[in-house]
Amino acid sequence: MPLPHLDRPFDYLVPQALDAQARPGVRVKVRFAGQLVDGWLLERHDSSEHPRLAYLEKVVSPVPVLAAEVRRLARAVADRYAGSLADVLRLAVPPRHARVEKDFLARTATGEPPTDPTTEPSEPADSSQPTASGEANQPSDPTEPSGSGGPEPGGWGDYPAGPALLRALAAGRAPRAVWSALPGEDWAARYATAVAATVAAGRGALVVVADGRDLDRLDAALTATLGPDRHVCLSAALGPARRYRAFLTARHHDAPVVIGTRAAMFAPVSRLGLVAIWDDGDDLHAEPRAPYPHAREVLLTRAHLDGAAALVGGYARTAEAQLLVETGWAREVVPTREVLRARAPAVAPTGDDPQLARDPGAATARLPSLAWTAAREALRAESPVLVQVPRRGYLPSVACDDCRTPARCPHCAGPLALPSAGGAPHCRWCARVAAAYACPHCHGRRLRASVTGARRTAEELGRAFPGVPVRTSGREEVLVEVPGGPGLVIATPGAEPVAAGGYGAVLLLDTWALLTRADLRAGEEALRRWAAAAALARPAAQGGRVVVVADGALAPVQALLRWDPAWFAAGELAERRELGFPPAVRMASLTGAPEAVADLLAQARLPEQAQLLGPVPADGERERMLIRVPRARAAALAEALHVAAGVRSARKAADPVRLQIDPLAMF
Q1: Rounded to an integer, what distance in angstroms lies between the CA atom of residue 514 and that of residue 524?
Q2: Partners of 472 in the beta sheet?
Q3: CATH of domain 1-62
Q4: Are strands 58-59 and 27-32 parallel, antiparallel or unpaired?
Q5: CA neighbours within 13 Å on the CB side: how many for 30?
Q6: Residues 6+ apart with CB under 8 A from 553
Q7: Which alpha helices (DSSP H) does 129-239 contain, by range?
Q8: pLDDT (tens digit, 9 = 90+) per residue, 339-366?
Q9: pLDDT of 144-187, one tens digit each?
């Protein structure tokens, strides 16, 4: 049951008629409080401590879709995030699709019977498991040599620790690595090589990416490396039927590798030997449904429970990944400076003193002369140019042209936007058209741009470079690849297409929109998005240039100039330690009506080291309270909040409280 005070197993009798079908992991229906509800059959026992038990009403399906190792993982995730097991299982197992299940049963009936996956797995021999003294052994070090031979390193040879990482995977060991990818790196091919080494050792692998475009790229790389039908793709975007069919394939262990988006983080994998995640800083990895787990944390938990290797990769590095390196839980896999200089593009800012001396207007210009010159030279060299713009649309924000007052909807006070050059302003909240808008302060009727979107940028650059093809890539239409000839590509972050041979120039515009966000991760997120775009440029030796319209003295810009994400992540983590923010500490967020938040805190027996921050206004009439504890007291904090939420649910408290552990957005 999803209610916190009912977050425990319940015993039922199994009728003789259902004995054969009632196996651990199947879906069942039972009577609970007089109602017929859905449930999972977790275990079978010969007896129970309860004297009077009700019977199972029905076995919904004889297919055991809930694996024992997934159930164990779900319990650990629920405890980590102060949630209920039922909520985690809702995320772990997709909804049943009867027709797909019928076809699956018919197929398995004609083939060899699968091995029984419902038995409790034996404890793995993992060097990361705690010893009898309670201390963890030293993890396998991918930088240590493991003898001669082993798999071909391929692109991993550009990293001093790369070949040793592959040898450790091929030997069946469990190395843990944080990988900083080179610019222009074919990350999907590198992941496919690591997966192949794991499969060669007779173990399975699980790789999670942020979106469907990355999933398609990894799918193609794995098909080329392992061959067809050797991996399963899991994604919520597949639709109910295809997703459930892919899940049953993984559950039946027909393929040793499972890849997917956030929906695959709980996927069943036989003899799991490697968990990997690409670009763990992407907010798409955070589950928006309770108990709000993050894919990176779920995969790291799986690595610990199953004795599997872990690989966290990206062009940038998060503070969480840096913490893994600094605590010794993982080792970093980084290139040498010589290789980096040969592969990186030339990066230049427009806001430093030398550039401002040459171009005084660069401080206020949206496209300074340095960026315009870089684009012109790349186009003359028959190379494509990528322009990254943080905002989509045409003019997503407008203001009065006379007094500069932001234009607001007269009905709901939402921001007005212009869909096109000749379009009427409309509200971004209620979608009402404000064709007769007049400024309430000066009664002016003319509007000017406050924020320029990707489509308006494409229009402006099309006029600046006549005759050059202009393409846009964003949420409405994502380009996967563009030809290598001259052309302009205007893309929003995360939608940058790959160019054949790389881009001759990459322009990073409107950087203030990322750097000035009221977010703890503003600098980290800005560097992540810039690095993803800059990595698509050609090396400097081949004329590749990156122009970032920002002050070169800023830390994220400095990290981009030097292509040193580890340096920025270390500084970010040090600042968060000093200020007491995650991941240096554990933070819980309570959001709800003031009376409800106060009631939950009154019921919670918080650890002694807990610090209360707030309350602060949230949205509407709700408020938010933050609770901070040292990482060593994280489990005690989660348990105290879960118990308190159970007390409120048992009393049938009317006002809910949203409980999140280590939320991405805290302000």
Answers
A1: 10
A2: 490
A3: 3.40.1440.60
A4: antiparallel
A5: 21
A6: 352
A7: 162-170, 187-200, 212-226
A8: 999 999 999 998 765 655 566 655 555 6
A9: 443 445 678 889 999 999 999 999 999 999 999 999 999 999 99
SS (H, E, C) 310-351: EEEEECCCCHHHHHHHHCCCCEEECCCHHHHHHHCCEEEECC
Q: Structure pTM?
A: 0.87
Cis before 583? omega within 30 = yes
Phi, psi (rounded to 5 degrees) for 341: -65, -35
Q: What is the DSSP string of 30-78?
A: EEETTEEEEEE-----S--S-S--PBP-EES-SS--S-HHHHHHHHHHH
CATH of 580-661, one of 2.20.25, 3.30.70, 1.20.950, 3.30.160: 3.30.70
Enter the DSSP assignment of 396: S
- Report how far residue 273's alpha carbon sits from residue 278's, in angstroms, rounded to the nearest whole number: 17
The span from the CA of 340 to the CA of 337, in Å, is 5
Which CATH architecture group holds 154-339?
Answer: 3-Layer(aba) Sandwich (3.40)
Average pLDDT, the chain: 88
Break the chain into its structural domains and give their ranges. 1-62, 154-339, 343-576, 580-661
Q: Is 598 helix (H, G, I), strand (E, B) or coil?
A: helix
Burial class for 120, CB neighbours closer than 10 Å (0-12, 13-18, 19+):
exposed
Closest CA to 16 of 59, 49, 50, 52: 59
Closest C-alpha to 175, from 117, 223, 128? 128
